[in-house]
Design goal:
Elements: E1 4-7, H1 22-30, E2 35-40, H2 44-57, E3 62-65, H3 69-72, H4 76-86, E4 91-95, E5 112-117, H5 125-129, H6 131-140, E6 145-151, E7 164-167, H7 200-219, E8 224-226, E9 243-245, H8 247-262, H9 280-287, E10 302-305, E11 314-320, E12 328-331, E13 339-341, E14 351-353
Helix pairs in contact: 7-8
Length: 359
């Protein structure tokens, strides 16, 4: 057992009272097993209760069980924003085997989505038979981390050999049969298709549009306000309108606007399909294999400052071709911005990257 999630729900033996788990938590701690609070959440108040308990327990994770998003009227964008802001640690998120369509699961893409496979429940067997389709659908809906959640009736049901967790609240009289002796492969999202570089004229048009919008944003600096809120906003706002964004949101906005203005859209440099999510870390994951030639920087190149012990993760975007000394970069890393800077204005530069569409 790697970890245990303890239910805070309305069950008669718990009744939303975290203290009933004090003895069990001490036993798990003595055995070296991390624990965290878990609950089937129907509202933001439920999620807030789980987070509060997680902090009280000094837990390394929480379990936010979200299933019928539609009936519960849960806004996953609001859920994601709250959890990113209030709980910067792992989130285990059990849900229905077939994630409800079009509900914005990309907003909770940081969570580990656990698809429930309970064959003893009427109507569930088709999901067990089609588990791979359920996994593929979850990725298609925006999930980035997907696993399975098995019910634990005795005798043990036949499940696919895939990374999973166990719903141990079921009645089990033979735990040894649940011990697995073979590796459990972890489902992986589909590989992003290779990006074909834009034709030369299209690249020029895209770069010209990006520079135009960036210069307009710099001129409108008084109405740009620094905020790390997610989902970020401003994709559809002109440069001269009020913005509340940060450096990585600024990168995404520049790329989105350049694509619209030039009529040559390219993929989100943050890796989240311009959904309002992503940060400097996801920008690095998206671009890390596409380094720009040293001292041959072009408009649209992305400079990432991520070195340990630096001044905090940051990103700037090239707005004038040239070397490290002659190129110009636009930055929005504080309330004083967007502004024009030089590439090495900070000493913690990780590298400069070029979007594959601009290669």
């Amino acid at each position: 057992m790697n970890w245990a999630a303890l239910n805070l729900g309305a069950d008669p033996c718990v009744q939303h009272n975290p203290s009933v788990w004090d003895l069990r938590r001490s036993q798990y701690k003595a055995a070296g097993i991390p624990t965290g609070p878990w609950m089937h959440c129907h509202s933001m108040a439920d999620i807030e209760f789980v987070v509060k308990t997680g902090y009280a327990w000094e837990a390394p994770f929480i379990g936010v069980n979200i299933e019928d998003v539609v009936s519960d009227k849960l806004d996953l964008a609001a859920v994601g924003e709250y959890l990113i802001r209030e709980w910067p640690q792992p989130v285990h998120m059990p849900s229905l085997p077939w994630l409800q369509n079009g509900q914005g699961w990309q907003h909770v893409a940081f969570a580990y989505i656990a698809l429930e496979l309970f064959p003893e429940v009427p109507g569930q067997q088709p999901y067990l038979d089609g588990w791979q389709r359920c996994v593929d659908h979850a990725f298609a809906e925006g999930a980035q981390h997907v696993t399975l959640l098995y019910s634990t009736q005795s005798p043990r049901s036949v499940y696919p050999n895939v990374a999973h967790c166990l719903y141990t609240a079921d009645n089990v009289d033979n735990w040894p049969e649940w011990k697995d002796s073979v590796p459990q492969p972890v489902p992986q999202p589909p590989k992003e298709p290779d990006v074909t570089p834009l034709p030369p004229n299209a690249k020029k048009a895209f770069r010209d549009a990006l520079r135009t919008f960036a210069l307009a944003a710099q001129r409108a600096e008084p109405v740009w306000h620094y905020s790390q809120a997610r989902p970020y906003t401003g994709l559809h706002a002109p440069a001269a309108e009020v913005h509340h964004d940060d450096c990585s949101a600024y990168l995404a906005i520049l790329y989105y606007k350049a694509g619209r203005m030039s009529k040559h859209p390219v993929s989100d440099p943050l890796g989240f399909h311009y959904s309002g999510w992503g940060n400097t870390g996801t920008a690095y994951e998206t671009l890390k294999t596409h380094k720009a030639p040293k001292d041959q920087y072009r408009i649209g190149d992305v400079a990432l400052y991520l070195q340990p012990g630096g001044f905090g993760d940051h990103v700037t975007i090239c707005i004038k071709n040239g070397s490290a000394q002659t190129s110009d970069w636009t930055s929005f890393g504080s309330e004083a911005g967007p502004m024009q800077l030089k590439l090495n204005y900070r000493s913690d530069l990780t590298g400069v990257y070029r979007h594959p569409a601009l290669q």
